[in-house]
Specification:
Blueprint lengths: L1 H25 L3 H16 L7 H18 L11 H12 L2 H21 L1 H6 L5 H75 L4 H28 L13 H8 L6 E6 L7 H21 L5 E7 L3 E8 L12 H12 L3 E6 L5 E8 L5
Parallel strand pairs: 1-2
Antiparallel strand pairs: 2-3, 3-5, 4-5
Helix pairs in contact: 1-2, 2-3, 3-4, 3-5, 4-5, 4-7, 5-7, 7-8, 7-10, 10-11
């Protein structure tokens, strides 16, 4: 609004002054006052060309209609430059066809008025009517075309802004989902180990010291991981959080065994190159599967298998416990595992194991081995 008002002032002052001089020399008397007043109104309306484009253009058209009614000589006044500016603004910011319609109709009316006006014939001004009409149409076409270009430019800019906002919203949602998965994996695994240790300690008082040591160690690790996640929430970059790798699987299994779950690690094939995201996914799949086994399988044992194939790492966790019927009703853990695997282009299957119990299998793409 301020920019438009400034433009109207900067353009209006010299044009109105020059138009006043031309009007006074061309049609002295009340008609000159009417011409200048109409020009002044048109310049004021130009200040609202973007805020109220249709109203602004309507006022400009009305002002020039008044000038046309006064004399055909208004066409030689410098203030006529306001009309192309108004037509441009109406096309760019308002109804695009209105500018073309008013411009074309106005060109015809002005040509007729200029051609058959006694003052014009007396002054012997003006070109051939058809040449004048063609010239006015060219001005209208130029202003309308530039308005269309500006309109398209604004639409494209708005589209980019909308896409940027949507991308930002998706990024926020993805980050929230990622952090939620991490918190679930860390908290659920650690609490499951601690709860099972506490339950086991009730029936083995002679091992209370060892049990409490495992609970303390698990709790400290959980606190460390939680602090890391909270640090990400405060500072932003996820790279600041150290993520576990498959090399740390022996440590994970060592923490699970004291919770009452005998677990074995088996590896086949030649290890390939996993990206950081894929390796974290493999680790979290194993962690979550073992957590579910500890929580729901009862007295069971588990086998973790890493099978390196030509284009994928197949991670399998099988237990001989209570089977799929023992899985929790909410299924947040399984849902989180599916999300993780799908995010890296892999596939997760779950169900009953070959000898009962529960089986989790994830196919994770391997880089450079497709």
């Amino acid at each position: 609004m301020r920019t438009d008002a400034l433009l109207a002032f900067v353009v209006g002052v010299p044009l109105v002054v020059l138009s006043s001089v031309v009007a006074a020399l061309s049609v002295p008397g009340p008609r000159a006052v009417a011409l200048v007043a109409a020009a002044l109104v048109a310049h004021v309306a130009l200040a609202f060309r973007r805020a109220r484009p249709l109203i602004s253009h309507g006022v400009v058209c009305a002002a020039f209609a008044c000038q046309t009614a006064v004399t055909g000589l208004f066409l030689v006044m410098p203030s006529v430059l306001v009309f192309p500016l108004s037509l441009f603004a109406c096309t760019a910011y308002g109804w695009r066809w209105l500018g073309l319609i008013t411009g074309t109709v106005g060109a015809g009316i002005v040509t007729m008025r200029f051609t058959y006006d006694d003052s014009v014939r007396t002054a012997e001004l003006g070109p051939n009517p058809w040449m004048l009409f063609a010239l006015l149409l060219a001005v209208v076409a130029a202003a309308w075309s530039m308005g269309l270009f500006r309109r398209t430019q604004l639409a494209y800019t708005h589209l980019l802004e909308d896409r940027a906002e949507q991308a930002a919203a998706r990024a926020v949602l993805d980050e929230r989902t990622r952090i939620a998965r991490e918190m679930h994996d860390v908290v659920a695994h650690s609490l499951s180990v601690m709860v099972n240790q506490a339950k086991g300690g009730q029936y083995a008082p002679d091992r209370a010291a060892d049990t409490l040591a495992v609970i303390e160690d698990t709790g400290r690790r959980a606190l460390t991981d939680m602090r890391g996640l909270l640090g990400v929430l405060r500072t932003g970059p996820a790279e600041q959080l150290a993520q576990p790798t498959l090399a740390e699987l022996p440590v994970l299994l060592a923490r699970v065994r004291p919770a009452g779950l005998p677990v074995e690690l088996v590896e086949h094939g030649t290890p390939g190159m996993l990206g950081p995201g894929a390796e974290l996914t493999a680790y979290r799949i194993i962690q979550e599967a073992l957590t579910n086994t500890v929580k729901y399988a009862g007295q069971a044992k588990a086998v973790v298998t890493l099978s390196w194939e030509a284009a994928a790492l197949v991670v399998t966790v099988v237990d001989d416990g209570n089977g799929p019927a023992a899985e929790p009703g909410d299924g947040h853990g399984l849902f989180g595992m599916r999300e993780r695997v799908a995010a890296i282009g892999g596939k997760l299957t779950t169900g009953e194991g070959p000898k009962g119990g529960f089986r989790v299998e994830a196919r994770i793409p391997v880089e450079g081995r497709a």
